[in-house]
Amino acid sequence: MLKNFAKYICGCDSTWNMGGFAKEKIAEIKRQVGDKKVLCGVSGGVDSSVVATLLYEAIGNQLVAVFVDQGLMRENEAKQVQAMFKARGIELITINAQDIFLTKCSK
Description:
By secondary structure, the protein is of the alpha/beta class. 53% of the residues lie in helices and 16% in strands. Helix 3 (46-59) links the parallel strand 1 (38-42) and strand 2.
């Protein structure tokens, strides 16, 4: 029903695909960044993880990915985030800020 609406009623093309979009964005990032470094904050969620992965595909070790463990994630979720980045070959700087964050929240 959605395809019918988009294609036949709205007149949209069906030429878009995620692979083409990713290649286009990776090339755009390479051009924009050049030889500079990029700092990317990683929350552990899908959005920041996808951004970090696209950045890494585009600029490799110029990416500085930082994950701040504030102590409010699900059990073992911080370890899962770290393992996911390690499996992709992306260096992830992890900062354990649980004590600082939770102390500040309790005041």
